[in-house]
């Protein structure tokens, strides 16, 4: 209720329900506002969307309201307890330090989710996932709150799982589990292989520890484990347990044991051993097929071999999974010919049900992505993947094969150059643009970190950029795939010929360069400008300021200024790098969002020689930054400026010198250890690639 008294307006709100203090937010400002209402048998929920007036023309409120209503309908139908906090506002706020925050009834989002330019369907899908993730928190975290932060996963793992479940069932994004396999699982695998890995239900001694535990274990591995739990007990039993849990602990605190008890009651299964195996241990198991066939190519023996969880104590786990056998259906497509679902337990599990089944051309021991594991391919399946990945008809199994190839690359079991070749050969046929975008990022990471440097510079990057141009020209005019290929070109190491093409796109007609339908709009202009800056082609005189200032004049917004900071830091001159370094390291007033932009521009692929002097400077400076800055800014600097450009034994020694210090705070030690592990992994992959 708003009551005006002259120039003053008094706003009176309903009594706030009981909630944890971290869920309270006060947001004020001259925001543009859109209103709607969600109505069902539980009553009305007033809906609001807010953003700065300067972004109002870009706000697609109707799409957001539709997704919001789909979320409420799904969660009300499945959680058994209606939304408890009255109105539901979603506010896109400036200089936000996270993607979003689940304040009760007033969810805040990063402004980047207001799309000023054309983006791919994948960007809309990920935004919808965030919208539904934060809404799921209204139950997981807001209605029922963990007693202490060691049960943080009760918030984040469940919200991540629930949002994907909702997307796949209730929205247009019916391939959400494919995206989950491609994005969240990849994040979880990477995090779980670091020396800092921890159980999903982690030990959190203090608030400094929790600040670095908003990670791929707490979100993505936890959600993956929940997907495995659903396969183990069944979705109906799982949801019934959640409904009991919400009713029993509404407006209060709960623990892991409370949740497990509710799920045990609903499913009739003792889950104590399951909880210990999956939530109290670290690492991931490797699963691989072991089989023999007769002269007709039919299995005479089939088993699944499970490697002990690593890193960790080497435990095996019970996995509810499916084995899928794929064969050519006669039309040139690989389709599933047989599926066998079973429990895998111990080192070896025999699968007698597959005896007599034709081997096919591809075997997946985690078909449908039911469990959390490192899936390995048999030799024949790997050959099929390397030659026929584009022929796999369905997106999810195709994504599982891509994922297996990427994990083999990271583990130095597949040469980086072979993975890049696989992407260049198969990405054109990837129907899910989000998967295609991730593959391009992975190929760039392989070229930048995992491939032998001379090969990458002389052959890898030039061939990759040529292929991106070819793919963009072959793509449907104005399509998401066309935009994805051009975006990837802008973040690659480019030759003079490629830079000239980008410069022509900035100034001319894309159709005249074989790219009809491409919109060189505000954000694509900035990507091109940053690429030209990184390539030393900022303008004819080589001076940056007039060129970048002219772009800021075209885009005089906060986002434009951040893009300008990134482009300026991308230039390949030693004095430019020194200036940007001083800004980030020494200026304690620099906003976190600006620091992220400068760091993103500063750390360009192909500029290793310019960055090498900063390896030791990083270790000399980072402790002071950690002491002076807020947690959010300090993490941005520590992670963003870690010298991942220096893949050498000397860089590992420099990290060891720093870690040998007596007074390194535990959270800082963890982040540096993670950076060191990334360099160590890259060094192994490069050695393997050079064989």
Question: Which helices and strands occur, and which strands form pairs?
Answer:
Blueprint: E1 2-5, E2 8-11, E3 31-40, E4 43-52, H1 61-79, E5 88-93, E6 100-101, E7 106-110, H2 121-137, E8 144-146, H3 153-170, H4 176-182, H5 184-192, H6 207-211, H7 217-233, H8 235-249, E9 252-254, H9 256-267, H10 272-279, E10 286-293, E11 299-306, E12 319-328, E13 334-344, E14 348-350, E15 362-367, E16 374-375, H11 379-388, H12 395-410, H13 416-426, H14 433-450, H15 453-474, H16 480-490, H17 496-507, H18 522-534, H19 545-554, H20 558-570, H21 574-586, H22 592-602, H23 608-611, H24 614-628, H25 631-640, H26 649-659, H27 666-689
Parallel strand pairs: 4-5, 5-7, 8-9, 10-16
Antiparallel strand pairs: 1-2, 3-4, 6-7, 10-11, 11-14, 12-13, 12-15
Helix pairs in contact: 1-2, 1-3, 2-3, 3-7, 4-12, 5-7, 7-8, 8-9, 12-14, 13-14, 14-15, 14-16, 15-16, 17-18, 18-20, 19-20, 20-22, 21-22, 22-25, 24-25, 24-26, 26-27
Unreliable residue stretches? none
CATH homologous superfamily caption of the domain at 1-280: Neutral Protease Domain 2
Fold-level CATH name of the domain at 1-280: Neutral Protease, domain 2
What portion of the residues fall into strands of 2 or more residues?
5-15%
Main sheet summary: 5 strands, mixed
Spatial gap, N to C terminus: 72 Å
Adjacency order of strands in the biggest sheet:
3-4-5-7-6
**How helix-rich are the residues, as a percent range?**
40-55%
| SS content category | alpha/beta
Mean pLDDT: 95
Structure description:
By secondary structure, the protein is an alpha/beta fold. Among the domains are: 1-280, Neutral Protease Domain 2 (Neutral Protease, domain 2, Orthogonal Bundle), CATH 1.10.390.10; 286-383; 612-691. Strands 3-4-5-7-6 form a five-stranded mixed beta sheet, covered by helices on one side. Strands 14-11-10-16 form a four-stranded mixed beta sheet. Helix 2 packs across helix 3, helix 4 (176-182) runs parallel beside helix 12 and helix 7 packs across helix 8. It is globular. 47% of the residues are buried.
